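Build the 3D complex.
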Amino acid sequence: MKAIVVHNYGGPEVLKYEDTRRPEPKEDQILVRAIAAGVNPVDASIRSERGAKFFGITLPFIPGYDIAGVVEKTGAKIAKFKPGDSVYAYLSLKDGGGYAEYAVATEVEAAPKPKSIRFVEAAGVPVVALTAWQALIDTAKLSVGQTVLIHGGSGGVGSFAIQIAKARGAKVIATASTANQDLLKQLGADVAIDYTKQKFEDVAKDVDVVLDSVGKDTLARSYGVVKKGGFIVTLVSRLDQAELDKHGIRGASLSVNPDSSELAEIGKLIDANKIKVIVSQTFPLSEAMKAQEQVATGHTRGKIVLKVADEPK
Ligand SMILES: NC(=O)c1ccc[n+]([C@@H]2O[C@H](COP(=O)([O-])OP(=O)(O)OC[C@H]3O[C@@H](n4cnc5c(N)ncnc54)[C@H](OP(=O)(O)O)[C@@H]3O)[C@@H](O)[C@H]2O)c1
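Done.
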């Protein structure tokens, strides 16, 4: 099969488009024929030795945590899926990732693909939607009527976080640059802040929850906007316990995990038209390098996705 394989650590040039062996599903795995693969900032991090070690990945490897495709074959212990099923999944990468014509997934990693969207959109969902869900629902316990400040609302995680928070009945304040103010509104943000023109702390005050996907100064300035008893979830940093204590708030650094039941819940919200998937750019699999360069800008609007095969009719 064709795949992108990383044999050496380095820049985007280490992403080699080549022929490699198709994986065989173990008894607890499904073999998925990929139609599309999502691109995430972490895909670039694991090209470095430090990043690969942190995420427990060894060379050579096929990147790509996100995949949408059709089940080709099932292992003996698979009960939930059968050949021909359309699925999307957050892969572990242990047996290869989604930048390939075929990949294997376990039942914990995969869920039925939402019927109302194309594969190319579905591939943009798993990692970022699960991150937003696990941050807001599982960790911060966001509830009806609460106010949440979502930094980076126009990116992969942020675009899902805004919509999940709205579906939860929360009030959403979201930040992005000037070019993405329209997107924040389109996604349902009640208040859109242009971080290039305005300090978010001048607008967002006494919020219940902050979702931080930016870190550094943005995180440092976020402690002060949370009301006593509130919560900060960061995806990119360690929290400063002294700052949390000073403001009487709690917090957590999140590391996302595959979860098929949450992915199925997210799929239902997509099919109920409560969550839109924004794919701003697609690239053929062979141009994964260009896709990763684009993601590395840190200014992706929605998602960037690799097209692996034609959408089935
Ligand atoms: N811990 C975990 O488990 C986990 C899981 C998923 C992602 N992450 C991390 O979370 C981060 C975001 O991921 P992603 O997939 O959403 O990335 P992304 O799609 O590249 O989105 C980044 C977004 O951040 C916005 N942004 C950049 N600088 C900003 C600033 N100073 N203030 C507010 N917004 C700003 C950008 O909007 P503009 O273009 O408008 O500036 C862009 O929309 C990445 O570092 C990723 O590695 C961690």
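The pocket of NAP is lined by residues 40-42, 127-128, 131, 151-152, 154-158, 175-177, 180, 195, 213-214, 218, 235-236, 254-256, 295, 298-300 (CB under 6 Å).
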